[in-house]
Amino acid sequence: MDQLNAVLADAVGYVWGLPLVVTVISAGIVFSILLKGVQFRAFRHAIDVVLGKYSDRHDPGQLSHFQALCTALSATLGLGNISGVAVAIHIGGPGAMFWMMVAGVIGMTTKFVECTLALKYRKIDKKGVVQGGPMYYIEQGLGKKWKPMAMFFAVTCILGTYGSANMFQTNQVAAILKQSFDIPPWVTGLALAVMVALVIIGGIKRIALVAEFLVPFMTAAYTLGALLVACLYYDRIPQMFIDVFTGAFSGTAAIGGFAGAGLRLAMVQGVRRAVFSNEAGLGSAPIAHATATTQEPVREGVVSLLEPFVDTVVVCSMTALVILLTGVWTQDLTGVELTARAFDTAIPGFGKYFVPVAVFLFGYATVVSWSYYGERATVYLWGEKGILPYKVIHCTLAFLGALWAIEPVLNFSDIMLGLMVVPNMIAMVLLFPEVKADSEIYFKKLHAGKFKVKT
After folding, report:
1. Are 192 and 398 in contact, with CB atoms under 8 Å apart?
2. What does the alpha-carbon distance between residue 154 and residue 147 come to, in Å, rounded to a whole number?
3. Higher-confidence residue: 155 or 96?
């Protein structure tokens, strides 16, 4: 088992290594240039759409723009925002924060492209149930001969769901609740499994109802907690920005103290954590955004670009802010423990309670929302008959994950998540001309005032 885990751990490093990082970022840069910086020029419009100014209840779909955004965000706002950021900074130094933000901004365009495609090629059955995501725009957009690649994506999505988006989340939640409050892991696991089951049994609409409450609450609470620390250490903020920018191009790491890490380490760690956190290019979020109530694919693409902004530019930067301002990033800690120590350093005792609650909410939201991604991939492969068995397995693994961190399973899952990028990026590149053409038409209509706006 140890040998198997070592092999899989090495494989994770290769899959999520520099080639994947360069591929995702390069595609995002090209998309951003060819779409004329859509993440900047459409930002205000995205907010207007989320606020319902362009909504029409007669349009096809299952969720409002806001619900679709919150559902996708609840999947991305996981332990990566708390634990992953800490790992990136501990290894890559302050400069990792800079590259994380760069990747977040670039990822906004990547998300725009994949979610526009998801709306354009989604299927809606007679009951009004939406089927969408990379599986569908690969098969329908590229043609039937590409179906094996669509099936490959669906399989990797299901396997990725069970590990990193389920067992890893519940395991980490159980671990920190045991450490902070001495709650037995089986109690945490059972509670999470039941809570997850109660939500996912109601399908996407119930998931969306939970998400539209949890996401704004989690984001606001975590941001306020981080800003409170920033206020206490306001005099260190100028130096922090100097360290971030200098570290971004020189590289400083803290691995048992200070050690030269170089530009490559800071860049890879920052970009990798951003991609892993906001999932831009992964192909998961399009499954949720495909359910939006609209007739305009580009409109939901615009909404989706807010997702990396909230996940990475806002929430991830809050974690980085606390860790860097308090100076704990050089200590021999990493992950959740480092983030908790940072909050405790600023406000003694605060991290002990605040971080475990944040981990619980973020982890729970991820398990719930990712269950929908795996469910839709299951339906694509085996039809509606596969839904119940999938949900039973998902909830069972949520419980088992809290009791036993099966490292080979988690590493295998990380590999699957990385492999999801491959078919998705191929489809995005090949279908990009369609996205560009549709975007030009949409924004011409928008600027000409041809869309009905609620006052």
Report:
1. yes
2. 10
3. 155
Angle, helices 203-232/335-346, rounded to nearest 10 degrees: 50
Q: Residues 425, 430, 434, 439: what is their CA dihedral angle, to the nearest 10 degrees?
A: 40
Tokens of 20: 């994947």
Q: How far is CA 195 from CA 253, 366, 425, in A?
A: 40, 12, 34
In the chain, % helix, strand, coil (3-state, to 5) comes to: 80, 5, 15
pLDDT at position 381 is 94
In this predicted structure, the answer to whether residue 32 has a pLDDT above a threshold of 90 is: yes
Mean pLDDT in residue range 435-455: 91
193, 424 contact by CB (below 8 A): no
Report whether 308 contacts 278 (CB < 8 A): yes
- Does the pTM surpass 0.70? The reply is yes
CA distance 172 to 150: 32
Cα separations in angstroms, 390 against 125, 163, 171, 294: 21, 14, 20, 29
Q: Which CA distances in Å does 270 have to 151, 227, 313, 324, 415?
A: 31, 21, 12, 14, 19
- The alpha carbon of 124 is separated from its chain's Cα centroid by a whole number of angstroms, namely 25
pLDDT at 451 over 50: yes
* Amino acid letter, 260: G
